[in-house]
Amino acid sequence: MTSETDLQAQIDLLQNRISELEGQMNARPFIADIKFQERLDREAFFYKVFRALSFNAIKGDYVEFGCHGGTTFSLAYHSAQLHKHKAHLWAFDSFQGFPKQRDEEDDHPKWVEGRMSTSLQKFTDLCDERGLPRDAYTVVPGFYSDSLPALKQDEAPDNIALVYIDCDLYSSTQDVLKFLQPRLKHGMVIALDDYYCWSESQAAGERVALEEFMEENPGWELIPYLQFGWHGLAFVLHSKDVKAVR
Ligand SMILES: C[S@@+](CC[C@H](N)C(=O)[O-])C[C@H]1O[C@@H](n2cnc3c(N)ncnc32)[C@H](O)[C@@H]1O
User: Fold this and answer.
1) Same structural domain for residues 210 and 120?
2) Closest residue by CA, ligand 1 atom 24
3) CATH number of the domain where residue 178 is located
């Protein structure tokens, strides 16, 4: 049994530790942790978007392009679960990091060939750790320029509720949008994680690729929906055949 003296000693220890931590916090002028904040922003995004998809009964899969360490993938899974949305999840990534830059529009200080590489094994291990059952998702490994055109009809998602494009590069986003073109549907959400990531020499690659794609597909309209963090923007896709309320 713990005596009163022992208990008091433990309380004193804890109080000392609290004072120490308070001291550390006060010594830092700005205590926000960037990665933590970005995670919170994305978590809030997935919470809202799956709530909207469930509320509006927009059925279909979650398709992610750019999966790396599986953070957004697992956030999407848990949000879908929370809102009882039955999305099957699809993970599209090279699992070897970025490809070689193909166009001058790809120029960006962070997006260098081979960076952000997470092996397929590591990705599935991380998904296991975060509680994603293996049958909840399908992984399609490979660089998009090879993997997407090679996918057979019955190996690809055919009803998409939410697309999360986080492959950063202009050229990668071009490949993704080409693949999505025959899979567009009214009411789906298209989110671009790097809509506001530009460089000294270039406009934001994901944004440019999307704008060009929309010009080539005049039957569709993007309704700006949610900005997340300092970097991302999501749209609801409207078919111009469906009357939009303005
Ligand atoms: C910013 S990371 C994705 C981060 C991820 N959403 C997360 O939460 O950890 C970008 C990813 O895009 C992938 N990628 C970029 N271009 C690609 C391409 N053309 N083909 C396949 N994967 C690509 C990279 O391998 C990398 O894993």
Assistant:
1) yes
2) 97
3) 3.40.50.150
